[in-house]
Specification:
The complex is a heterodimer of chains A (about 250) and B (about 70). Chain A has about 250 residues and is of the alpha/beta class. Chain A has helices spanning about 25-35, 55-60, 70-80, 95-100, 100-110, 150-155, 160-165, 180-200, 215, 220-235; strands at about 5, 45-50, 65, 85-95, 115-120, 125, 130, 170-175, 205-210, 240-245. Chain A is globular and about 50 Å long. Chain A starts with a strand and ends with a strand. Chain B is of the alpha+beta class. Chain B has helices at about 15-20, 55, and strands spanning about 5, 25-30, 40, 65. Classes of the chains: A alpha/beta (about 250), B alpha+beta (about 70). The interface between A and B is medium-sized, with 28 and 27 residues. The structure holds thiamine diphosphate, iron/sulfur cluster (3 copies) and magnesium ion. One iron/sulfur cluster binds near residues 52, 126, 213, 214 and 216 of chain A.
């Protein structure tokens, strides 16, 4: 019998601390599998965020640097510029990237930094207990909008792929989702494409991953996947938003 | 012929693999691991087609698949 699936060596043996059914774990695995497949072992540096993925440095089997909240794209910029022989990626949540770190992500993208950013959109501040994020959907409940997000009071959600795609610097931008096995396989293809853009020195690459937070959504893991598939996907369409081919 | 191996000590009993199996071969068992999670089990290994959908959906790399 041949091995069809086994855990990639680009993940360590440390047990993930994520809640049961949280798709952060799937996103970690996909990034790690891609790093193994492109032969990045030994020359890849990741930057971990503040948020539920704060311990990402324990899980990826490569050099990792923790960044202050939202600053991962700036830290990744520095690492990539000083050691351009390395593949450099940032892994960030939506509170981290689209709220406190909005300036860093927009400017890293605008400058066309040759880094790859993996953006976990779960429409909420997971780690701190479920506050509204810039990505929270209209009508979605959070501890800071207990009757549901109201555009008049709380503003409208931000679509990061669409926003960054207006800039010249990015070379690859795609949004994917992790609600079933077929979409997980598609997400991996997208991540591989993003890292390939970096390997080929084309420009800034960005993958937004629609991800679940069963704990703060007050849902079972199954209900949470259904929320990603329906409500989230309706507002955040999947697809490629920018691709520079030459 | 296909075979899956379940690393029970890392299973969190989330059920995402159960949902994804096209043959409906997986279920959450009545046995818990040292973390207190009721772990997943396979009901009929001979019916497994080795598609790895379960492994794709597992956030914790609990399942490995051979074919
Ligand atoms: C400067 C600073 N401000 C606020 C916090 C508190 N804080 C920790 S994580 C977090 C939000 C995390 O949400 P997100 O980035 O969406 O990640 P998730 O946990 O949802 O994956 C906040 C506000 C902090 N640690 N540092
Ligand atoms: S709080 Fe939400 S995002 Fe954080 S580990 Fe739990 S389910 Fe995942
Ligand atoms: S490999 Fe496919 S058929 Fe076998 S248990 Fe997993 S999902 Fe079911
Ligand atoms: S998806 Fe993984 S952690 Fe969840 S029940 Fe299945 S084997 Fe266990
Ligand atoms: Mg979040």
């Amino acid at each position: 019998m041949a091995v069809v699936f086994e855990k990639t060596k680009m993940l360590t043996d440390a047990p993930l601390h994520y809640c049961p059914g949280c798709t952060h774990g799937i996103a970690h695995r996909l990034v790690a599998e891609v790093l193994e497949e492109i032969g990045a072992e030994g020359h890849v540096v990741g930057v971990a965020p503040v948020g539920c993925a704060v311990f990402a440095y324990n899980y990826f089997n490569c050099d990792m640097q923790e960044a202050a909240h939202g600053r991962a794209p700036a830290v990744a910029t520095g690492i990539k510029r000083v050691t351009p022989q390395n593949i450099v990626f940032a892994y960030q949540g939506d509170g981290d990237l689209a709220s406190i770190g909005m300036a860093e992500i927009v400017h890293a993208a605008a400058r066309g930094e040759k880094i790859t950013v993996i953006f976990i959109n779960n429409t909420i501040y997971g780690m701190t207990g479920g506050q509204m994020a810039p990505t929270t959907l209209i009508g979605e409940k959070a501890t800071t909008c207990i009757y549901g997000r109201d555009a008049e009071k709380n503003g409208n959600p931000i679509k990061m792929c669409e926003l960054l795609a207006t800039l010249t610097g990015p070379s690859y931008i795609e949004r994917v989702a992790l609600y079933d096995a077929a979409h997980v396989r598609m997400a991996k293809k997208a991540i591989k494409k993003a890292f390939t853009h970096q390997v080929e020195n084309r420009g800034f690459s960005f993958i937004e991953i629609l991800s679940s937070c069963p704990t703060n959504w007050g849902m079972t893991p199954e209900q949470a996947l259904a929320f990603v598939k329906t409500d989230m996907q309706n507002f955040y369409p999947l697809g490629v938003f920018k691709e520079v081919t030459e | 012929m296909a075979k899956i191996t379940i690393k029970k000590e890392s299973c969190k009993g989330c059920g995402l693999c159960v949902l994804s199996c096209p043959k409906k071969l997986l279920q959450i068992s009545g046995t818990s691991n040292k973390n207190g999670y009721f772990v997943v089990e396979i009901t009929d290994m001979k019916a497994c087609i080795g598609c790895a959908s379960c492994a794709m959906m597992c956030p914790d790399c609990v399942i490995s698949v051979e074919k």
